[in-house]
Each structure stands twice: as structure tokens, then as C-alpha cells.
Design goal:
heterodimer, A: about 350 residues, alpha/beta, TIM Barrel, 8-stranded parallel beta barrel, two-stranded antiparallel sheet, 11 helices, 13 strands, about 20% strand, B: about 450 residues, 10-stranded parallel beta sheet, two-stranded antiparallel ribbon, 14 helices, about 35% helix
Chain lengths: ~350, ~450
């Protein structure tokens, strides 16, 4: 039977822009170590395969004005967790690919091989970066190039490049270090990386379907596998019954700020109906990424009533402590492109 | 000894996990991984047990080369500093976490935000060691390439720091809305507009200040321009003047004069020279241990590589235990490929090497060691404690940024044997009295928050 991988988005207080009104803490607590740790632990304890952390250099359009960088949040929870994958959203339109690759490789080292990367494009204003605007086809070009550069940089160190050869006095084996000599339309990168190859070889690259040619995980909004990625995850917004019916909870939040339609399907209803829906999706897609309405309210329901039922029916499995994200997802460890070539 | 100018002075220790250098011994059986998180956690937690002020990470944005090839003799390959320190924030409670970050190949909105994130996640323990680069060789890894003139590197750094401070000051201290009708009080966040020769940006700050206000600013530049930059902006100087008392005192006095000239109080920054500390039961054993350490650090291959930099051509096929090259050095173009190790007047250096080698009958390798940077202190715990107490009370230093010669255990002796001696002499804390890096260092609020 096909296993359904379960991912959850953990940004802010939930997917709804008014979610903060239902949070079990005040606004200032959102931007603390304690809150960052608690929500990640809850997701791991629930048995999710992967946590994602939305991000941009400017605050969300509605709701909280504050947000700690996703890479920093993911790195902070890395030593506090042991099984859940950690995938920050990192933008590609104006960021420096060399820095992005260093940050993600470092996250993979700190998490012992549990890092992913949710690739974003066109989410940040060019004025914040002081760069000319990139629009249209340029967004996909910058995303594609950033991913290519990052993967090349991950491969620019062989797995055993630090040879520590006392006889010759060499710490590094030059034969395992590679200039990437990337030349794109808008910039070039020489390499090699300044961070050794990540434990997973490459971090798991997750991207909206169609943004880049070859993600490891494609995010889709209709339940159908796509051919250009080994894994397809369906995006799914969820509002669940608590003591209060989901419809009422949603209506109360919408009265403050309407929940914008993002094109993602939405599940509003009981835990049992969500379990049924997810069982139905197993075999159609490889996983789902859930966007809970209010983290403090919907995550406990997911943890107590949804994931246990999916584990019980073997629709999903709890990741093993110490396993890499690639192992959990059944993705192979990529060969090193420079060493394959030679 | 009552005439000390700073009788109540306290020593502050940081630990520099170097990652790229030949001073960390990698050939020893006890030398651990340079990239595994466990090594970093071990060093940071040992330093915290020793009540250190800070854990410090360096950065270099291109893998070093020598003679146009990747330099393969030294330790290299280290994590991104802010990412690694964010992870370390989760497994430490009190120690400061200092990231070296470049102002040439970063942008203020991004870097200021990343540092704020570290500062909030650590409860006010972040520091930023501000460094500059101008060489095109490093620029080959970045979108803009080598765009910055050498003369403009501190200009950009100063404007960068000012932009970062404006971002950090962008949230009102009373930003939470009192009535809960909105997430933040309307008007509590002020957009930052920066327009000057280096930047043309509009930034909406995304984070409030941490308990320490701003991350603590470190700086290490030693040129006159670097010192002036430090006097204008820095709160801690990571200096290269920590081996000789007179040199350290002269540097400290120069910095204090520049501080006052910049309109700041003379005690507005801390001076922490980088150093290596070698401890043994007797002075003789300590000297012997230091000699042994130098031989591990300056291997025959490393000695030849250093000599090659002086001579300007490849000497790797020579005998390190033989004499210096008979040829004269050649002039070569400086690319910055070996970082800060600049050789300005090769002929003069070579002449000095020859003079010392002949007078003291030294081999090439012995000459490299003899004339290399005098970077360390070796002694007994009590002898070193007496010396450091004298130095800090004299105003020559405020402490040291210690580079362990062995990872991850190289700090253990210092924490277990030297710190208690310093505590006995009243020059080292016996417990953390604050929670932030700024409090550990006894610094005032940030310059824009006074």
C-alpha cells in the first residue's frame, strides 16, 4: 500500500490571517524561542514527516507584522527535534544563491540530514533588496538558476573531501573539490562551496509545480501526480471541528479578515472527514502539505484524531528518529554530478 | 599594585571556532570533526560552563587558494555562521553568539533581519563581527561580482551599519496593541528609506528589538581606516594585539583616543585580542607543549606553502628541513586568495628571514615558526592568571578571544584550570549576572538607543 507523506506549514499562528486572535499567546510571544520550539515539537510529536516555514523579507500582507527568518527558525529547532524534516521557504528572485546554498547546507548539517527547501519566487519586493525588478519569465529563470547553483555547490565538495592525510600534510583532497563555473543569463558563480557537502547530498528541493524543471517534491493544488518530480504533494488548507464546529470557527475569523482564496483546496469539517479524505488521496498523490487554520487549535486535533487514525490504517507512517528526510521520503541520495562526470 | 588604572577590571573570554586556518591541529588523533554539529555544541557548552561571554564564528566567502589551486593543507569547510548560531542558541542558555558577516556581499534588509532573528531566538545574545571585502576574486561567487573599490569598503560598511541600525530601530518599544484589536499598534512600525551612494532601498522592518536592543557589533580591522571605523561603530574590537604587553597597551590607548575623538566615552568598547592559550603544570612543560603545537600547526608542507607566499613562486618541492631558497622573491599580483595574509614587501621579509636563519642556524620550517605571528600565551594556570590580571588591570586588554588549537576539547584546560585561578584573583565572574551578550560585556545600550 502506498504511504501518504504528511507535511505541515508552521508559519505564524496559522494559515488564516486572523489566526493570531485565537492563539494561546499574545503577539509578542510569537517572536520567541519558546513559541518556535513548542510548535515544532508539537508537529514532531504528532508524527508529521515534514514541517515547512513560510517566509519573505517583508511581513505577511495581513495579520502578524513580525516574522523571524525561516532558516533561523528551522535551524533553531534542528537540535530540539530528531525525526521531522525541516524545510524553510527561501526566496530566489533577489537573494544571493551562494548564501542560500551555504545556509541550506548548514541546516542539513545541523539537523543531521533533515533539511528541505521550499523554493519561492516573486514573493519579495525588489525595493527591499535595492535591485531592478524581475518579473514574468524572469521569476522562473532566477528560481531555476538558484536551484542549479545550489545543487552544483552541494556537489562541489565530494563526500570525503576532508581526507586528513598526515603523510602528505593535506587536509583536503583537491580532486574532490570542484569549481562549478556556473554562467547564467544574469550572473555567474565560481565556487566551490565554503560548506562541505550536506549529509543528504542535496537538501530536498520542494517547489510549486511548474516553477522549476526538476524538484524533488512538486506542490500541486489539484490531486494528481505530475511527471516532472519524483514526489507530488497536494496543498490542503484545513479547518477542523474543535469544541466549536469548523464552519463557525472559520466564520468568526473571516468576520475580522477574510481568508483569501489561494487556489489551494480547503477542508472544513470534522477530523473523521479529513481522515477519509486523506485515505482517499493515498495512491493519487504522494503526500499532502496541510495549512492549519489556527496552529494552536487545529494542530492538537490533527495530533490527537487525524494522524493516529492514518497511522492505524497504515495510510501514513511516523518518521524514524535519526532518519534523513530523503530516507523518510524514499528519495535516493543524489550522486555527485562532478564525480559522475569524471 | 594599587596604582593600576583599572583596579576593578574584569576579563572577558570569547572562543573562536576558527574553521579555516592552519592553527587548529587536524592531524592529532583527538582532533574532531570540523563540520559535525556535535563539535560546535561541545565547544559552545564548554565555553558556557567556563562563563565565557561569547562563542564566535568566522566567515570567508571563497575557498582559499594558493598558486591558483585550492589550498589543501589547512582545515576548510565551515557552516554558515547565522544558521549555525541559531541552532546553537537552542542548546545554550547564556553565552553570546557572534557571527562574522560581510557588508560587501550582503544587503541590509536581509542581514539585519537574519541577525535580529538570531538575537530574538537567543534572548538577546547575538553579535555581529562586521567585515569588509573588496577583491574581485571573492566577488566571483556573487551576483554583482567585484564591484566595490578598495577605498569604498569602509564607506559601504559604515552606511550598511547605519541602515541596519535604522531597521533595528524600526519598531516602537510599545508595539503590541493595548486593546488587541490589531496585531500591532497602528503606526508602531516605521518603514526605512535609505538613499545614498551605496544603497537605494525601502525596507519594512519585520522584527522588534531583543532584550539587548541591538546585536553587539564586533570589528577587527587594524589599518588606520579600520581603527577609525571601529571607534565610530564597534562595541568590541577583536584585535591582533594580544601577545606583547606594550603592543597591546599601545593599541588600547590608540583605540581609546580614537573613541574619544569620535565623541564616545573612552570605556565604550571592549578589546579582545585573538590568542591561543597553552597550559601545563610547569613553565618548562608549557613551553615544550607550545613548541610541539607549533610543529603540528606548521607542518613541512605548510612551512613551504608560507614560504611560497613570501617568495612568490612554488616551493613545494623543496626540503622544509633544509635552508631557505637561494633565489630572490618575485613580485606577484595580490588577489586576496589567502585571505588577510598579505605580503607587501617580499624582498624585505625574505631578507629578514635570511638574517635570522643564518644567525640562529635555523631550517626553513624553523624560520617560519620563529618569525610567524607570536599569537599565544603559554604557562601554568597561576602564572597565566597573574599575567592576565596584570594586563586587564593595566588597561591593555579587556579579555581574549581564544582559539583552541584542538577541536572539540581544546578549551577544557582553560575552563577547568585557568578560570578558577582568575576567579581567585577577582578578575573573572563566578556566575553569569546578566542574560544578554551586552550585559556580559558590561556595555551601554546601542549608540542609537541612549
Amino acid at each position: 500500500m502506498t504511504v501518504l507523506h504528511l507535511a505541515v506549514e508552521l508559519d505564524g499562528d496559522g494559515a488564516h490571517p486572523a489566526a493570531w486572535r485565537r492563539a494561546q499567546h499574545g503577539p509578542s510571544e510569537l517572536l520567541t524561542a519558546r513559541r518556535t520550539e513548542r510548535v515544532a515539537r508539537r508537529a514532531e510529536n504528532a508524527g508529521f514527516t515534514l514541517a515547512t516555514f513560510d517566509d519573505a523579507i517583508t511581513p505577511p500582507g495581513a495579520g502578524p507584522l513580525g516574522r523571524i527568518g525561516a532558516v533561523e527558525r528551522a535551524a533553531f529547532v534542528a537540535p530540539l527535534t530528531t525525526s521531522i524534516g525541516l524545510a524553510p521557504v527561501v526566496a530566489t528572485t533577489y537573494t544571493e544563491p551562494f548564501h542560500v546554498a551555504s545556509q541550506l547546507a548548514s541546516l542539513d548539517h545541523a539537523s543531521l540530514g533533515r533539511a528541505g527547501w521550499v523554493v519561492a519566487a516573486g514573493t519579495e519586493p525588489h525595493r527591499a533588496w535595492g535591485r531592478p525588478p524581475v518579473t514574468g519569465d524572469g521569476l522562473a529563470r532566477e528560481a531555476r538558476d538558484a536551484v542549479t547553483v545550489a545543487r552544483d555547490l552541494f556537489d562541489s565538495w565530494g563526500d570525503d573531501a576532508a581526507i586528513r592525510d598526515v603523510t602528505t600534510g593535506r587536509y583536503l583532497d583537491r580532486a574532490q573539490l570542484h569549481y562549478i563555473d556556473f554562467v547564467g543569463e544574469t550572473y555567474s558563480v565560481k565556487g566551490p562551496a565554503i560548506v562541505p557537502r550536506p549529509p543528504q547530498g542535496h537538501v530536498v528541493v520542494i517547489a510549486p509545480h511548474g516553477l522549476i524543471p526538476d524538484p524533488d517534491v512538486a506542490l500541486v493544488t489539484t490531486p494528481q501526480r505530475v511527471p516532472d518530480a519524483p514526489l507530488t504533494f497536494l496543498e490542503l488548507e484545513v479547518a477542523l471541528d474543535t469544541d466549536v464546529p469548523a464552519e463557525e470557527r472559520l466564520a468568526a475569523l473571516d468576520a475580522h479578515t477574510p481568508w483569501p482564496r489561494t487556489g489551494r483546496p480547503r477542508h472544513v469539517g470534522s477530523a473523521e472527514s479529513l481522515v477519509e479524505r486523506l485515505r482517499g488521496l493515498a495512491g493519487t498523490v504522494d503526500g499532502v502539505r496541510l495549512h492549519p487554520l489556527v496552529l494552536d487549535e487545529d494542530l492538537p486535533v490533527l495530533s490527537a484524531r487525524v494522524l493516529p487514525a492514518l497511522f492505524e490504517s497504515r495510510t501514513a507512517t511516523r518518521p524514524r528518529a535519526g532518519a534523513s528526510l530523503r530516507t523518510t521520503l524514499g528519495l535516493p541520495r543524489p550522486a555527485n554530478r562532478f564525480e559522475v562526470a569524471s | 599594585m594599587s596604582e593600576y588604572p583599572f583596579p576593578g577590571a574584569q576579563l572577558h573570554f570569547g572562543v573562536f571556532f576558527q574553521g579555516v586556518n592552519h592553527w587548529t591541529i587536524w592531524s592529532h588523533p583527538d582532533s574532531g570533526s570540523q563540520i559535525d554539529f556535535a563539535s560546535f555544541r561541545r565547544v559552545a557548552q564548554t565555553a558556557e560552563r567556563g562563563l565565557f561571554d561569547a562563542f564566535f564564528l568566522g566567515e570567508g566567502l571563497r575557498l582559499r587558494e594558493s598558486g591558483g589551486k585550492i589550498h589543501d593543507l589547512d582545515i576548510a569547510g565551515r557552516p554558515d555562521a547565522i544558521t549555525q548560531l541559531s541552532a546553537l542558541a537552542a542548546v545554550t542558555d547564556r553565552i553570546g553568539l557572534v557571527a562574522t558577516q560581510n557588508t560587501t556581499y550582503n544587503e541590509p534588509a536581509d542581514l539585519a533581519r537574519r541577525l535580529s532573528g538570531l538575537d530574538l531566538l537567543s534572548g538577546g545574545r547575538a553579535g555581529w563581527n562586521v567585515v569588509t571585502t573588496d577583491n574581485a576574486w571573492t566577488g566571483e561567487n556573487f551576483r554583482r561580482g567585484g564591484y566595490l573599490d578598495h577605498a569604498d569598503r569602509y564607506v559601504r560598511a559604515g552606511l550598511f551599519v547605519e541602515a541596519a541600525r535604522a531597521i533595528w530601530d524600526g519598531w516602537a518599544h510599545d508595539w503590541p496593541a493595548a486593546d488587541g484589536s490589531t496585531w500591532a499598534r497602528p503606526g508602531a512600525v516605521t518603514p526605512v528609506r535609505v538613499q545614498n551612494a551605496q544603497f537605494d532601498v525601502e525596507i519594512i522592518p519585520t522584527l522588534p528589538r531583543s532584550p539587548q536592543g541591538h546585536p553587539v557589533l564586533f570589528q577587527a580591522g587594524d589599518s588606520p581606516a579600520g581603527r577609525d571605523f571601529g571607534a565610530s561603530y564597534a562595541e568590541v574590537i577583536f584585535s591582533a594585539h594580544g601577545a606583547d604587553f606594550d603592543d597591546a597597551l599601545a593599541f588600547a590607548n590608540d583605540l581609546r583616543a580614537r573613541l574619544v575623538a569620535a565623541g564616545r566615552p573612552a570605556d565604550d568598547l571592549r578589546i579582545l585580542p585573538g590568542t591561543e592559550i597553552v597550559i601545563a603544570d610547569t613553565e618548562e612543560e608549557a613551553e615544550e607543549k607550545q613548541r610541539w603545537i607549533r610543529l603540528q600547526q606548521v607542518t613541512p608542507a605548510t612551512a613551504l606553502a608560507i614560504a611560497s607566499q613570501v617568495w612568490g613562486f612554488d616551493l613545494s618541492d623543496r626540503d622544509a628541513d633544509g635552508p631557505l631558497p637561494s633565489e630572490d622573491p618575485v613580485e606577484v599580483e595580490e588577489t586576496g586568495e589567502m585571505g588577510s595574509r598579505r605580503w607587501t614587501d617580499r624582498r624585505a621579509i625574505a631578507a629578514r628571514w635570511r638574517e635570522v636563519a643564518e644567525a640562529e642556524k635555523l631550517s626553513l620550517r624553523e624560520t617560519v615558526i620563529r618569525l610567524g605571528p607570536q599569537r599565544g600565551h603559554a604557562g601554568t594556570p597561576s602564572g597565566l592568571a597573574d599575567k592576565f590580571a596584570h594586563w586587564v588591570r593595566s588597561g591593555a586588554i579587556d579579555g581574549f578571544n581564544v582559539s583552541p588549537y584542538l577541536i572539540p576539547d581544546g578549551l577544557d584546560d582553560i575552563v577547568d584550570r585557568l578560570v578558577p585561578e582568575l576567579q581567585d584573583r577577582g578578575v573573572y565572574r563566578t556566575e553569569y549576572t546578566g542574560t544578554t551578550l551586552r550585559e556580559h560585556l558590561g556595555l551601554r545600550p546601542p549608540l542609537t538607543r541612549r
